[in-house]
Each structure stands twice: as structure tokens, then as C-alpha cells.
Amino acid sequence: MAMRVGDVIAEIMKRERVKFLFVYPLTPLTEFAAAADIRPIVVRQERVGCAMADAMGRLSSSDDVAVFGCQGGPGIENTFGAVAQAYSEGVPLVVIVPGPSRALANVPPSFNATLNYQHITKSAETVTTPEMIVPAMRRAFTLARNGRPGPCLVEVSDVFNAEIPSIANAAALDYEPTKRTLIAPDPKAVDAAAEALLNAKMPMIYVGQGVHYAKAWNELRQVAELVEAAVGTSMEGKSAFPETHPLALGAGGPTMSSALATHVRESDVVFGIGVSYSPGFAIRWPTENKRFIHSTVDERDLNKIIPAAYPILGDAKLTLAMMHQALSERLRGKPRGLTRAVAARIQSQNEPWLNAWMPYLTSNAKPLSPYRVVYDLLQTVDVANTIVTHDAGSPRDEMIPFWKSVTPLSYIGWGKTTQLGYGLGLTMGAKMAHPDKLCINYWGEAALGMTGMDFETCVRCQIPIMSILSNNFGMKCEYAAMKLSHQKYRTCDISGNYAEFAKALGGYGERVTEPEQVVHAIVNGIRATKEGKPVLLEFITTQDVRFASGGGLPTDGAGTGGD
Ligand SMILES: Cc1ncc(C[n+]2csc(CCOP(=O)(O)OP(=O)(O)O)c2C)c(N)n1
Ligand SMILES: [Mg+2]
């Protein structure tokens, strides 16, 4: 007797605490996983299954790296977008795919995944002999969860069913679960940064996803409260710091609060912790009269966009703990009593801004204001026990400044690349990771068009998420850029009744047109999720394009959101 390659993969998955196989047929892995009591979740398209695995990795801070499997050729071709998204966001993930036969791996038009995935994975390798599988799996899980997390590809050529003579049974399989090991920063670099922070006139802390992966939430709070600096986050870092805290500025992408925008402009020292300072849909940092402390685990982030006056390479938790100590020594363990003034400054910057937005957040207009939907949602759900994500387009820009996260990893932020439809799979993965929490994705109907059919997976596999659809019958953020084609050929319009769609697939659907129905529908939706039904609430919203771009007011000009 000997184990086959597929049996060994399934056994290794179990040892790596993999509970589900997110999968689209046909791959032999589905059968091997089921034989090992790992439940396959069969989705309707690859992007969604991969996004589910992605969410599991994120929400466990990479403790539980999840696996996605699919067919070679069309399956792995169709998975490309999802892996590219995970790579850009720095998300741990292992993708296992059967490859073309060894004989034809380099003969066109065979799709050679190992070659084609080179630029969107941390590692991509082909297993061509049965014995290679164990070290290949060990490498993939190790790389996925260490350093800057990311997706790793294992392409198994025609050896899935081959026996490994040296492994008679599971007891003979020499495989320990891989570990995450941390890189501590240079104490001198931390010391210099602490000095700079304390000498700053208007310091701020800018928090990225690295704080989530390092589970450094407590350390972050301790440092913020000791140095008494305002704290803003990237979209990925959202929920790393309670957004109701007096020192909180909120999260920023294309849109943000006025206080965050003001601090981005005016701070003289910015302590970026667990951030990449990447371009794209992230905050664009001015660099004049500003010095940046840049803490990251990835040396490729340093001096990528902003000049790093104080580079610190290392894990965010260790960095913050050392920073706390360095600050403590200088302050004799006590804050300087600045908190009240800093909090008052933040409040005075946000007050007129929030007052200007309040009529939209509480609007009684028809079609509905999307801000009213977001605001009512925030007032109605148990925020601490809810996991939320936005989608690309206006939903992201409407949600980021106004949703106030209070617990770590309760918001799945993204936007390094912005693939419409990503949010659904993330929320499905979140619900599988946290069945007791309310899991919500907020999206538009163009996003729904990309992945919406996987609402059927929610029904079939009993994944009772709550989808909040802002249906404005068009790609509202694109009209301004597509004027002529729209005028001549109506290129921006979209149609459909998605509450009916949800019902037809067996879920709970409700279409909402009246402002006074909004809360009611949300309450109905929450109840349905508790009864085990996936929910799609379709809010008919305005095409009005007002966004808090760069901390702006609703009157600052229309059509300035990103896409
Ligand atoms: C896969 C993909 N293709 C194209 C885009 C560009 N894009 C961003 S938002 C958007 C339209 C969004 O429309 P909708 O989902 O209805 O949201 P709305 O802005 O109307 O609320 C498009 C085409 C994208 N982000 N992702
Ligand atoms: Mg739309």
C-alpha cells in the first residue's frame, strides 16, 4: 500500500487546518478532499471560490491559509483575476490545480499555469513527480503566510493519482503544519522614529493591513494613546483601530473624512505602520514638508512611492511593542496630556463636514440616497458583530468614510486593484469563517453582474449572507467619462430586478423604494439570515454622484469618485 499524491495533498490540508475546499470542477482534488472529510464548496465560478478562500486567510490573520482548487486550462484561466486581486492585496492563499500532462506542458495551446501565474503569485511551481508534492506543499503554505502574505500556486501535472511508495499511510507522512515566524525590526531604527514622532508638531499614525496580519491591534492602541497622535487607516487597514475612538480619523481611499484629509495634508511626521504606501486607489500622500516613518515587512515597499526618512523593516506587532517601549522611556511612561486637544481638533475638522453630509445620510428622497442606506445599516446592525465589505465603484466610495468599524477584522477593505464582484465571495468566505456574525457585502448592479450567480451557492450551501444592493440602473460613476457613447448608444445603463432574481434562486429578496422602508427591510433581512436564508436587499438609489473625495463636501463637485 502507498498513498497517492491526491491523498497526501488532502492529508496535508488537514494538518494545515484547512476546513473547506473551495472548488470548481473538474479537479481530482474534490474527491480526495471529500475522502478526507474536508467539505468541498462548489461555487458557480472560479473568482468567487478563490475570494472565499481569500477571506478566510484575511480573517484569520493568515493562521488559516485556505485552499482553492479548479480545473486546469479553462478553470485556472478563469481564476486569474481572483489570484491577481489576492496578490495585489497581499492575501495568503494556496491554489492547487491539475496541470497539462508532462509530455504536453509546453506545447501550445496548453495553458501552463506555472508560467502564466509568475507575476501574480509569491510562488508558482509544477509538481512533476509524486515525491515532489510534500516539499512543494510545505513551500506553498510557508510562503503564503510568511512575510507579506500572498497566493501560491501548486500545479500538479499528471501525477494526481500516482502512488508515493515511500509514504505507506498517513502515519508515514512526515509533515508538520507550517509556522509563521516574525521579523523583528532594528531597535536603532525604532528609536530614531520614536524621537521623530515625539518632536513632531502634528504627528499622525497611518495604519495598514500589516496590523491585521500581525494582530497588533492592542499594541497600536497603546502607542496611539501614549504618543497621543491621530490615527487614520488605509482601506485594507480599516477596523484595525476603533473608528469611534477620540483619536480616530477613519479610513481613506478615494474618499475620506475631512479630518483625515486635513491630517494627510498637514501632518509633519507620518508613522505608517504595516502599510505599503502603494499607488492606485489608496490615499495619495503629499511629500513636501513631511517626513515618513515607514514600517513594513516588505523591503520592496520602501521608497516605492514616498521617501522613507525612517524605514523600519519588520513585523507590525513587534515594531509597535518596541515603539511603545522607546516612547515610554522618553516620556517616563506617561502621555503628555495632548489627547484632549488632538481629539478636539479632529472633531472641529469633521463637524462641518459631517453636518454637510447629514442631509444625505438621513435623506428622505426618492430614489433613495445610497448614503441613507449605508447610514441606516450602520444604525441597525450590531456593528461589533458584523463583517462588512464594499465593492468597486460608488459603493466603496460611499461606505469607506461613513461606516464606523469598532472591532478588528470587522471590515474587509480592498482597492489595490478593484475588480467588480469581489465583495460577494469575500462575504461568503467571511460567513463560513464566522457563522455567528452578520456578513454583509454592499455593491452595485454592475458588480452583481460579475459574480451574482453565486448567490445560488449561498442558497445551496447554506451560507446566509446579507447582500445590500444599491441599484441605480447604471454604472453611475462612469456616465461622466462615457458621455458621447451613452448619449448615442446608452452604454452606461443596466437593467434588472434583483430582488426577484434572489427569490428565484431560493433566497430572501426585497426591493426597497421608500425611505421609511429601509430600516424595516434591513431588520427583515437580518431575521432571514438568522433563519439560514441568504438575503439580497435591493435598494433603488439615485444616480447622483456625490462623494467625499479627498474629504470633500457634497457641494464640492459631482462625478469625482474613482472606478
Ligand atoms: C472587473 C472590473 N471591470 C471594470 C471595472 C471598472 N468599473 C468600476 S466601477 C464600474 C461601474 C460600477 O457600477 P455599479 O456596480 O452599478 O455601481 P454604481 O457606481 O453604479 O453604484 C466599472 C465598470 C472594475 N472595477 N472591475
Ligand atoms: Mg449602478
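^ thiamine diphosphate complex. The chain has three domains: 5-172, 187-346, 362-540. The longest helix spans residues 339-361.
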